[in-house]
């Protein structure tokens, strides 16, 4: 099978701060990969490099046959400004933009799709609400709705379940399973190791560099996890 992304990052710096050194791996279509590692280890940096938000200082991230709209990226929630004056329906409309030709005005069919997506993520009746009035869990449901609207081949989720209650996590997990069953590629940063073991066949352990990559059971060994904890 041909690769979806060839990652050959030698180094990524923010000014004087080195976030990531050697990180080489190949991602294939339909892979389901968890990115695991300590705080400050470079996981979010790797996700942004995969999403194409910027290029590595040294090295390359080669996306094969992936247009920007084929990649849905959900940022870590600490990076999301929820005071921005947006309504729930605006956020879903942003996800639909490839279908609306880049304009946020929706036709009747897209409007129906928007309401259907809100229903699927458990936000029926919330379309006109301001995002500043949503709880943390409702906001995450909304961002999953935006990912769904985008209909992307590659879905990047940075700590999607952190700080979310168990019933909501269960709902969001079943959406991720559906996306994967539809043939999409899923990459998620997670701190819950037992969830990773249950749900993700592949794992990347990242602590300044790629400590290990491959089948989850071979990556998340006590030795590797100890090495990662001391590598930041
Ligand atoms: N925009 C930025 N400017 C400067 N330094 C940054 C920036 N973003 C990240 N860093 C630094 O790069 C390193 C890696 O950060 P990153 O956010 O990728 O880690 P992380 O593994 O996602 O951590 P966490 O688990 O806390 O989310 C850290 O030392 C961080 O302080
Ligand atoms: Mg992070």
Report on the structure:
The chain is an alpha/beta fold. It has two domains: 1-66 and 153-167 and 179-232, P-loop containing nucleotide triphosphate hydrolases (Rossmann fold); 81-152, no CATH class. Helices cover 34% and strands 25% of the residues. Helix 5 links the parallel strand 7 (154-158) and strand 8 (185-189). The longest helix has 16 residues, at 166-181. The chain starts with a strand and ends with a helix. Magnesium ion is lined by residues 43-44, 76, 158. Adenosine-5'-triphosphate (ATP) is lined by residues 14, 17, 19, 37, 39-45, 76.
Task: Please outline the helices and strands.
Layout: E1 5-14, E2 17-20, E3 23-27, E4 32-36, H1 43-51, E5 58-63, E6 71-74, H2 88-95, H3 108-120, H4 136-150, E7 154-158, H5 166-181, E8 185-189, H6 193-199, E9 202-207, E10 209-215, H7 216-219, H8 222-229
Helix pairs in contact: 2-4, 3-4, 4-5
The protein binds adenosine-5'-triphosphate and magnesium ion (MG).
Residues 14, 17, 19, 37, 39-45, 76 line the site of adenosine-5'-triphosphate.
Quick synopsis:
The protein is an alpha/beta fold and 232 residues long. The model has no long low-confidence stretch (mean pLDDT 94).
């Amino acid at each position: 099978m041909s690769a979806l992304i060839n990652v050959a990052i030698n180094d990524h710096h923010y000014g004087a701060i080195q976030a990531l050194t050697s990180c080489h791996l190949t991602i294939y279509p339909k892979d389901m990969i968890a990115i695991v590692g300590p705080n400050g280890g470079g996981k979010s940096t790797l996700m942004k490099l995969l999403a194409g938000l910027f290029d590595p200082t040294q090295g390359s991230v080669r996306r094969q046959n992936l247009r920007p709209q084929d990649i849905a990226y959900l940022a870590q929630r600490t990076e999301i400004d929820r005071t921005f004056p947006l309504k729930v329906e605006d956020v879903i409309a942003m996800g639909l933009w490839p279908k609306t030709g880049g304009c946020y005005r929706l036709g009747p069919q897209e409007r129906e799709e928007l309401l259907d997506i809100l229903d699927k993520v458990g936000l029926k009746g919330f379309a006109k609400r301001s995002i500043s009035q949503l709880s943390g869990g409702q906001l995450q449901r909304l961002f999953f709705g935006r990912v769904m609207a985008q209909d992307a081949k590659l879905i990047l989720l940075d700590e999607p379940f952190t700080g979310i209650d168990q019933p909501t996590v269960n709902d969001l997990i079943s959406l991720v399973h559906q996306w994967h069953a539809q043939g999409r590629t899923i990459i998620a940063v997670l701190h819950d190791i037992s969830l990773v073991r249950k749900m993700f066949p592949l794992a990347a352990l990242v602590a300044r560099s790629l400590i290990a990559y491959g089948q989850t059971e071979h990556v998340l060994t006590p030795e590797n996890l100890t090495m990662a904890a001391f590598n930041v």
